[in-house]
Amino acid sequence: MAEYYNYIKSLHLIFVVTWFAGLFYMPRLFIYHIEAAEKTEPQAGLLTAQFRIMEKRLWQIITWPSAILCTLSALLLLWIMPDWLSQTWMQIKLGFILLLIAYHLKTHQMYRQFQKDTFSYTSNFMRIWNEGATLVLFAVVFLAVLKHQLQWVYGLLGLILLALILMLGIRLYKRMRKQ
After folding, report:
1. Most exposed among 9, 59, 60, 120, judged by the fewest C-beta atoms under 10 Å?
2. Which residues are CB-contacts of 33 (< 8 A; sequence separation ≥ 6)?
3. C-alpha to C-alpha distances, 50 to 54, 68, 111, 115, 124, nearest whole angstrom
């Protein structure tokens, strides 16, 4: 099975990219869905119906299958390289993956609400929610690439700094929209 390692790793990376594409775009569709519902009829009805279709296709055809295939290929890689499980970088990475799965499941719950045109969130909240996947992506990529070279304190400080920059960007965008 080790001779197939690079093929499995390549597939894993492709599924990571497509999973994150769905996780990045779904909250953006939620933002548009919320803002469309605030418009007057008939525009609101037409737009929200279109966003439900787009959300359904993205979530069911791209995001969920990519998440499943990413997870299966990751498990296969760990089966080939079981020693990774004893390494600190992998244990921390798996912790972030658990956060990503929780993020995915919460987004799924939101998706189900949006399919019913139930809006429990503001567009501003969804802009902030959208950055959760970004933070996990940064952490996972740095852990996977740097492994033992990464000094955890600097990595944590970098994630905090990135989160602050993202929040400042969201605030700046909100101000620009009001003007």
Report:
1. 120
2. 47, 48, 51, 52, 55, 114, 119
3. 6, 26, 14, 11, 21
Residue type present at position 134: T
User: What DSSP state is assigned to residue 149?
Assistant: G
The model's pLDDT over 65-95, given as tens digits with 9 standing for 90+, comes to 999 999 999 999 999 999 999 998 899 999 9
Q: At what angle do helices 88-115 and 5-37 cross, to 10 degrees?
A: 40
Angle in degrees, CA 54, 31, 17, rounded to 5: 60
Residue-wise pLDDT tens digits, 111-154 = 999 999 999 999 989 999 998 999 899 889 988 888 866 676 67
Q: Please, are residues 5 and 80 in contact by the beta-carbon 8 Å criterion?
A: yes
| Closest listed residue to residue 135, CA positions, set 116, 107, 155 | 155
pTM: 0.86
Length of the chain: 179
Say how far apart CA 68 and CA 51 lie, in whole Å: 24
